[in-house]
Amino acid sequence: MSAKVEIMKTKAEQSIAQHFADKVDLLASGAADAESRRAAFARFLEYGLPHRRIEAWKYTDLRNALGDVDMPAFGEAPTVDESRLNEALGPLGSLDAYRAVFVNGRFDNALSALPETAGIAIRPLSGLDGGSDAPVDQAPVDQALEEALSVQSIVALNTAFLTDGLNVSLADGVRLDKPLMIITVRAGGRDILVTTRHRVEVGAGAGMTLIEAAVSADGTAGQANSYVSLDIHAGASLEHAKIGTGDSAAVSDLATSRVKLDREAYYRAHQLTPGAPLSRNQVFVTFDGEDAELDFTSAVLGNGSDHIDSTIVVEHRAPGCKGRELFKAVLDDRARAVCQGKVIVQRDAQKTDGKQMAQALMLSEDCEFDSKPELEIYADDVACGHGSTSAEIDADLIFYCRSRGIPEAEAKVMLTESFIAEAIDNVDHDGLRDAMGEIVRTWLADNHSSAKTAL
């Protein structure tokens, strides 16, 4: 009789198991919630952390990349000063927007400012008082999607360690007058794992702008695991931005978005990551209704030993839908950017129009850009294509700028900004576009001075 072979767990997986055993009863709101979390954690144990032998994770091997995992956030959250929060948000701090603020994974009513408009329902999962005794709603996930795309363990961990999140619902025809910004804040001085889950439903013909941002209010380091579920109904529109602010205290950030588009729905998505030690933004979009449209951009700025992974999978199930995906990466030092874009066109999705482009600007001989575009087409009347390029700054353009009296270092910054601007210019909301542009300029100013030998 052969003995069962048990796969050796990494230090990070051992830490996760110990944290869950110690904190599950503190995280759960009751017996049923605890049982749901245990079932999710059992699923994680079945798969373990994603690794390079899983095709979708071949460039971002979490089993090797995560040396350890921080203690999950639990209990009462510390008090955060609003002025300090605005300072941490940088250009986003002055943006005219509604706010839903989560401090160490718990909703903070005092820092939040939610709209009070008919037809708009916005509530934290834990209740408006942010009380830890309120039941935490376990939002449903797409099991078939998880299994097909090998994201089981990350979403399972999200369910197991979930602390709070936001439910957003717009009734048919309602349009939010200014953006809603979901802000996740780490504070208190203790390195923590923050786990959140948000659900957004945009009714038929409705529209809104949604912004996600995560910051440290006092230098508190940590890790994050977020899950966002977006349902955009017939004729509705959603502009959605996930923005980093160059917060080097964030050790790792794992973000999953699931998007469903109904007939003639429009989803405009933006990612801006100005440096991150370890980041994976993965987006899964499904066209469920005909003539829907997706416009996706990802802008990555990396230096040092940053590892930034942008992955999107788009499935066309309905005819006449249009998808555009643009990836832009600026890399210096030993930074690494991963761009994975997969388009699946099912048999009934005739007249699909899909285009994908990935471009990297390499400022160092030691940086790395991994681009993996994929097309999986079962229909016969489609227009789909993809492309990928990587290059250094054009020496002729540098010479031209210098001949016009522009110093070499300044010329390189100008050319780098113009390269990344294509992704930023696609933002529809004026204030959001300006804030993202300022974040890019700040990163360039901090990382591309005349004293930087890599330039």
In short:
By secondary structure, the chain is an alpha/beta fold. It contains 9 helices and 20 strands.
**Helical coverage, percent range:** 10-25%
Major sheet details: 10 strands, mixed
Q: How many structural units, i.e. domains? A: 1
Number of helices: 9
Global Rg: 22 Å
Distance, first to last CA: 63 Å
The helix/strand class is: alpha/beta
**Strand runs, count:** 20
Topology pattern, helix = H, strand = E:
HHHEHEEEHHEEEEEEEEEEEEEEEEHHH
Mean pLDDT: 88
Beta-strand proportion? 35-45%
Structural shape: globular
Uncertain parts: 1-6, 130-141, 449-455
Structural summary, described in words:
It is globular, with a radius of gyration of 22 Å. Strands 1, 4, 5, 7, 9, 11, 13, 15, 17 and 19 form a ten-stranded mixed β-sheet that branches. Strands 3-2-6-8-10-12-14-16-18-20 form a ten-stranded mixed β-sheet, covered by helices on one side. Helix 2 runs antiparallel to helix 6. Helix content is 24%, strand content 37%. The longest helix is centred in the C-terminal third of the chain and has 18 residues. It starts with 10 loop residues before the first helix and ends in an 8-residue tail after the last helix. A hairpin with a 2-residue loop joins strand 2 and strand 3. 48% of the residues are buried. The protein has one domain. The protein has 455 residues and is an alpha/beta fold. The N terminus and C terminus are likely disordered.
